[in-house]
């Protein structure tokens, strides 16, 4: 391997490279340390060299050299994922996309960007003509468009627009292959699912065409409640209120609000809370709903203040886990969907069954046209066996678990082989060089 890396680096000497071991190690990691199961499996797994191509031609040259010397290649955005998606299991090349920063064009409802464009940069430019991303992760300030689509699934905005895998939420992907003669393939329409959420195991995404949403004037609210299930039902009713335009409904059981240092002075002690982004034009019906559920507005930010100070987005989704672990490193998390539970009876059962061992954190999203709670519960970790028991109990009761404690593509989400993704990998990566050992179907 070392001989191949040396030959490869000489052949690609015109492309920016990083060989400093500490820097390479840092660029071999994401936030897999959220999982005490993944830490021993992924610690010490590092690449041999990092390349930063400045354009698609350099990506093609890296692909050609990797095929020539049979060197594994792992693509990395900003490394904000949580499952080791960009951690190389067999060393080799890390292709870091931070220089692929061109926003090709933006028009009403659509944008074309290079893979390394940050979501915040895309939104800033799109908002100039009244549009913004349909959905973003809580890491919106640092996450890249390509990294989000290759490794993410949904986020802030999913309560309106569903998840990335839903038809229409990714329009096109331009992909470099790792064949004997690497080529560029443009995937459009349903064909984008071949690389959507594939961890970069079957193609190097260089450009993406993504839909945009109308950019409303948003306002932020923190609503506190004395009872968790009241907070949860408020979130569900708000999600079902089609006449109120909302971008985020993030509900947190106590003691999670105590982990939000920047919000502690606003949220009453021992309270449960909902973090909300709602259109400023719908403020009146929103406040009426808060009153109906006897909630208390304990924090709010107007549209004019939205660009200043803290953003509630950074206390939602997996940022919740980040804040909680900063206070208590023994905490880990789950990812769950409460499907077919409109009255939240199953949610209440899980909340009461586990108590303080599994602390409820809900993000409301749209699935097949229906708003449901997706949970990112905080778990007080003791042993791997107990964590598996918790997962198995949820599944036995009808809760869908997207396991965040595995780096295997199929084991984390849908639990099935995606034949289209496997067939595409056979076509474009015949030597299995792309992010090896992450796709169970291939291995």
Explain how this protein is built.
With 443 residues, the chain is of the alpha+beta class. The chain starts with a helix and ends in a 15-residue tail after the last helix. The strands form four sheets. The chain has an eight-stranded antiparallel beta sheet with strand order 14-11-13-12-18-19-16-21. Strands 5, 6, 7, 8, 9 and 10 form a six-stranded antiparallel beta sheet that branches. The chain has helices at residues 2-11, 21-26, 38-42, 56-69, 119-126, 145-151, 158-161, 228-240, 283-292, 317-327, 345-354, 384-396, 409-412, 419-428, and strands at residues 17-18, 49-51, 73-76, 93-96, 103-107, 110-114, 131-133, 172-176, 184-188, 204-214, 218-225, 246-252, 272-279, 296-301, 331-333, 336-337, 358-359, 361-367, 370-375, 378-380, 400-401. The chain has three domains: 2-96, Uridine Diphospho-n-acetylenolpyruvylglucosamine Reductase, domain 2, CATH 3.30.43; 103-214, 2-Layer Sandwich (Uridine Diphospho-n-acetylenolpyruvylglucosamine Reductase, domain 3), CATH 3.30.465.10; 218-401, Vanillyl-alcohol Oxidase, Chain A, domain 3 (3-Layer(aba) Sandwich). A hairpin with a 7-residue loop joins β8 and β9 (184-188). The mean pLDDT is 96.
């Amino acid at each position: 391997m070392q001989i191949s890396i040396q030959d490869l680096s000489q052949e690609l000497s015109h492309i920016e490279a990083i060989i400093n071991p500490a820097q390479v190690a840092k660029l071999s990691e994401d936030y897999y340390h959220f999982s005490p199961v993944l830490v021993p499996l992924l610690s010490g797994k590092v690449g041999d060299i990092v390349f930063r191509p400045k354009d698609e031609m350099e990506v093609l040259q890296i692909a050609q050299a990797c095929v020539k010397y049979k060197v594994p290649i792992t693509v990395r955005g900003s490394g904000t994922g949580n499952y080791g998606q960009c951690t190389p299991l067999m060393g080799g090349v890390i292709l870091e996309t931070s220089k692929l920063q061109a926003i090709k064009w933006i028009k009403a409802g659509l944008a074309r960007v290079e893979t390394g464009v940050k979501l915040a940069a895309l939104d800033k430019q799109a908002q100039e003509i009244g549009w913004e991303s349909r959905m973003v992760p809580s890491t919106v300030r640092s996450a890249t468009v390509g990294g989000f689509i290759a490794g993410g699934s949904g986020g802030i905005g999913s309560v309106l627009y569903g998840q990335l895998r839903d038809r229409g939420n990714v329009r096109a992907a331009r992909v470099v292959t790792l064949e004997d003669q690497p080529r560029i393939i443009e995937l459009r329409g349903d064909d984008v699912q071949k690389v959507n959420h594939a961890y970069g195991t079957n193609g190097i995404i260089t450009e993406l065409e993504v839909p945009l949403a109308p950019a409303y004037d948003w306002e932020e609210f923190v609503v506190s409640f004395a009872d968790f299930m009241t907070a949860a039902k408020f979130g569900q009713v708000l999600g079902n209120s089609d006449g109120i335009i909302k971008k985020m409904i993030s509900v947190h059981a106590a003691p999670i609000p105590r982990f939000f240092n920047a919000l502690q002075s606003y949220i009453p002690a021992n309270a449960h809370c909902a973090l909300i982004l709602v259109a400023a034009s719908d403020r009146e019906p929103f406040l009426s709903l808060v009153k109906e559920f006897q909630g208390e507005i304990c924090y709010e930010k107007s549209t004019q203040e939205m660009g200043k100070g803290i953003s509630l987005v950074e206390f939602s989704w997996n940022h919740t886990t980040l804040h909680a672990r900063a206070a208590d490193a023994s905490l880990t998390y789950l990812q769950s969907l409460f499907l077919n539970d409109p009255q939240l009876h199953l949610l209440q059962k899980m909340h009461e069954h586990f108590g303080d061992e599994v602390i409820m954190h809900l993000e409301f999203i749209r699935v097949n046209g229906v708003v449901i709670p997706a949970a990112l519960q905080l778990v007080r970790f003791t042993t791997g066996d107990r964590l598996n028991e918790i997962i198995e109990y949820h599944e036995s009761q009808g809760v869908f678990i997207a396991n965040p404690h595995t780096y295997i593509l199929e084991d984390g989400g849908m639990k099935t082989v995606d034949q289209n993704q496997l067939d595409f990998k056979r076509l474009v990566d015949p030597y299995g060089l792309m992010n090896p050992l992450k796709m169970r179907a291939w291995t």
